Amino acid sequence: MKKISLLLFLLCYFGGFSQYADKKYYLVDSIELSLLDKEDKNTLDSLITIYHQAKTDSVKLITLDRLTHLNDFNTWVKYNFLLLTETKKVLAKSSANLKNKFLNQRLGNAFYNMNYSYSMTNNEDSAYKYLGLSIEPFRKCGDQKGLADVYNALGIYYSRIGKIVEGLKWYQKALAISESVHDKGGIARSYISIGVSYRDLNQWDKALEYCTKALKIWQEAGTKEDLPEGWNQIGIIYKWSGDTVNAKKAYEKSLALSEDLKDEFAIATAKLNLGIIYQDKKDYEHAVKNYNESLRGFEKIKSPNGMAFVLNSLALVYNQKGDHAKALQYALRAYDLAKQMDYPETLINGSQMLFETYEKLGKYKEAFQMQRYHFTLKDSINNVETQKKALKTQLDFDNEKNVLSIKKEQEAKNLVAAQEKKQHMLIIAFVCFGLIILVIFFLLLLKRFRINKKQKLIIEEQNHLVTEKNREILDSITYAKRLQKAILPSPYEIREALPSSFILYKPKDIVAGDFYWMHKSGNTVLVAVADSTGHGVPGALVSVVCSNALNRSVNEFALSDPGKILDKTRELVLQTFEKSDEDVKDGMDISLVSITSTNASATKNIKWAGANNPLWYFKDNEFYEVKPDKQSVGKTDNPKPFTTHSLELTNDDGLYLFTDGYPDQFGGPKGKKFMYKQLMDLLIDSRQKSMQEQAKILEQSLNYWTGNLEQVDDICIIGISI
User: Fold this and answer.
1) CA 529 to CA 487: how far, in whole Å?
2) Cα torsion for 336, 337, 342, 343, to the nearest 10°?
């Protein structure tokens, strides 16, 4: 029995343990990888790999900072706490110069993120505390954008506790900073906050003006993550001002954008607001559906304020439907959450809903107590007129409830009598109407069935034709790939001629315009990386012409000087395209190197020529660049002979040939090009590693940079260690 119990314990233990990621590798506790979406999972794995490979504290802190941008709330909060802890450790042992810049930037970001996480869970005291802590680091590192974000968050804090005018002052301060540094994102955030303040003051035109200006900036900048909030606030303004049609359109736009971004908070908010619209239209079925989906969303992200608002809304719906017992369940849950948060506005709404529900259930004692508590709360933030009105309501309550009770009883008797009188006629009318509808529906269904059957046959036939054509096209392209592969040097030839080297070759499509070329003669190896005009099938056709011209230049014309080879190759390419009736300007950009070794010395003679593509090389661990001739190998205006550059390299020196595909790849957080400077830095940082490790780093960096974006061009890089 003990053995069986132990086995069951181990199975349960390890079964429960496997759902969490390894803390030693992922750095924090309880990361549930199964709950992360694909984008978060890929980003997390890439950044954790970079973290473990990092050699310096600065790279590790930058990586932790990027991990705080994950979508999953519970995950990024844990990495933000780690960022805060590690930054403090490094700050304690760093130089004064570093303290004033890089580390203070990380510290300010971590403090500000802590404020956001506490604000999302309605812990306002802690949120306010970390806002205050973030100001000093941002000031020390001169981050005006960060400081503007803090001021904007302070405005939100004061608005949420009912001090709207005080919050408006902080929004204006944030706006002034953002305008001074031309930060459009900060300007938009301030506009939206100011618009919300004017909305709370019932100044609809001003509110709509500021929120619309914010939305326009976000749309022009392409910052999709901010658009749901903009449309949501515009929807609220339309709703409060009585324009429910435009309010619904705005909420639906907010929901669609939120679902694309997988923003749980924004989705829950949009569902809540759509529920209110349906409730106003007395479409209770859709209202309850949206409220329940909103409630699940707020529960998932642990937002008590959002949960309380939805629960109050559900209570109101069930009161309107006449199910007051169910309304009471939701109202009590909402009130309990409001008491835990101690938010004046939320408590006012909760007590009001309980008062109305108790009254509808005939529990007048509880209703009176809750109404008195409701007006006490309201008096604390409203004016003297409101206080007088609340007092008058309390004094008249007993008399009003008796009159209301008698009136409701009489109305109920009259309603029963009227219903009994009309009951028989209604039954007959509904039965006849139902039969007519049923016949019409059957006829329409039969007609639709016949149409669908005919359309299905047509669609199946068209799909078959399309599938067949696609198969034929794909077979042709696949065969073209085999043909193009035949012009590329084999892996065996490359390893034999260049033992310490790598080739990173990533065609954009099945076939490519980029290609690499090699020729060995005695102690000399010629290696080239070329970018033919276009990519895909057209580029592949041009690459075959250019590769053939290179082979003829060295085999048929016995050329070995890179400049002269390119001159002859251009001549042969032009001869090929001159046979066309059209003016063909296709050709290639190329980087061509000649490596000659002698048995007597470790020094190798390097000769190189380039058309639009440069040569990068390391000599004695110093980085150098050789500029190419600014002309392509093809038809060009004012052609000139290609220049041959000579240099000498020894053991452990290296050189790199490449096309423009890698630096031109779009990606990163802002969807920009990778650029030559970043590629250069990547090669410098990985210089001491083997060629195979360098190739792996280049591919990982490219995958992380590209993310979910499409590859824009063929990519080819060759690295050679001398």
Assistant:
1) 13
2) -120
Kindly provide the b/e burial profile for residues 133-155, where b requires at least 16 CB atoms within 10 angstroms of the residue's own CB: bbbebbebbebeebbbbbbbbbb
| Alpha-carbon gap, residue 21 to 79, rounded angstroms | 14
C-beta separation of 244 from 207 below 8 A: no
What Å distances lie between residue 557 and 523, 544, 564, 705, CA to CA?
19, 19, 10, 44
Distance separating alpha carbons of residues 154 and 144, to the nearest angstrom? 15
In 3D, which of 178, 155, 179 has the Cα closest to residue 167?
Answer: 155
Q: How many whole angstroms separate alpha carbon 38 and alpha carbon 20?
A: 17
Q: Which helix (H) or strand (E) holds 611?
A: strand 604-611
Tokens (6 digits) for 202: 């019932």
Share of the chain above pLDDT 90, in %: 40
Partners of 503 in beta bridges: 718
- Residue 682: alpha-carbon gap to chain centroid: 25
Residue with tokens 């895909």: 536
Comparing C-alpha atoms, which of 710, 680, 684, 668 is closest to residue 69? 668
- Is the Cβ–Cβ distance between 72 and 44 less than 8 Å? no
Are the C-beta atoms of 659 and 611 separated by less than 8 Å? no
Distances (CA, A) of 266 to 71, 257, 360: 12, 9, 34
Task: DSSP letter for 35, please.
Answer: G
Quote the percentage of the chain above a pLDDT of 70: 86
Give the span between the Cα atoms of 588 and 470, in whole angstroms.
30
418, HSE (Cβ side, Cα atoms, 13 Å): 6
Q: What is the separation, in whole angstroms, between the first and last Cα of the chain? A: 68
Looking at residue 271, what is its pLDDT? 95
235-244: b (≥16 Cβ within 10 Å) or e? bbbbbebebe
Distance from the Cα of residue 702 to its chain's centroid? 18
Alpha-carbon distance 403 to 418, whole Å?
23
Helices first, then strands: H and E counts in the chain: 26, 13
| 408-433 CB burial, b ≥16 within 10 A, e <16 | eeeeeeeeeeeeeeeeeeeeeeeeee
For residues 89 and 80, the answer to whether their CB atoms sit within 8 Å is no
Q: How far apart are CA 662 and CA 714, in angstroms?
A: 8
Are the C-beta atoms of 189 and 214 separated by less than 8 Å?
yes
Query: Reduced to 3 states, what is the DSSP secondary structure of residue 595?
Result: strand
With H, G, I as helix, E, B as strand and everything else as coil, classify residue 48: helix
Q: Which of 368, 388, 369 is nearest to 378 (CA)?
A: 388
**CA 155, 158, 159, 162: dihedral to nearest 10 degrees?**
-160
Model pLDDT for residues 109-123, shown as the tens digit of each residue = 888 888 877 777 767
pTM for this entry: 0.43
Tokens of 643: 């220049």
The whole-angstrom separation of Cα 145 and Cα 183 is 7
Cβ–Cβ < 8 Å for 666, 672: yes
- Cα 55 from chain centroid? 28
pLDDT of residue 584: 59
